[in-house]
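Exercise 7.
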Amino acid sequence: MDAKKLVEIFEKISEEFTDKLLLNLSWKGTLPVVENVEVEFNEDKIIAFLTKVNLELISLRLINRQINIPRLITNFKNKGNYLKLLTDNLEAGFWEELAKKQKVKKEILALHFLFLRRKMLRELKDLSLDKGVNQQNCPTCGASPGFAAITPTGERILFCLECQTQWRYYRLGCPKCGNKFHEDFIEIHPEGEEEILYFAEVCKKCGSYLKTKNLKNNEEKINPNLEDVESLFLDYLIPKKINY
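Solution. The predicted structure, written as tokens, is:
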């Protein structure tokens, strides 16, 4: 499956599906939000959302048949629950067992529920707005940042690829290991292509890197999932430049 196409499908469905999947939110004020929130799950809307996902994937010929979503939900709840999905705490082997019951490939099932989880997480992200400054992990879902941007004024913004939460972080600092020693960071740029806005910032202490985009102006809005796909060339370039 084409990664960019999947991102575009999810964005299209999310834009069209404005109904809430999470109801009666009660947040304790502690980060990450997802681990400290009480919520009710709107199952009717969850079924409607998964049905929309299923039909969209069929229309694009990414899958070849319609899934019985109510039956899928029943089988899903026999071994799991929505809260475990939301907190990414399903047991090992869960998708394999569900795939056998549903007689659908586990990758297809996991894709449906990946879309579902990301839609739920997006409904939580406004709670963490401006509350995660200099946090190493996403203040909404606790995931590691998957992309970064630098504004023309030098502000560094981290992005979560799971829920698209964004938060400010140290201009030079590793969100994985917490290192802030300036000499431990190097930038990797494509050779001879200075006009490309993407580069990678590598932490020599832990070996991690974060793909980054130089924004053209402070008001520029980006979709980090699409930017992650557009900058895949850096994922191939970095191992050639750095000896891990």
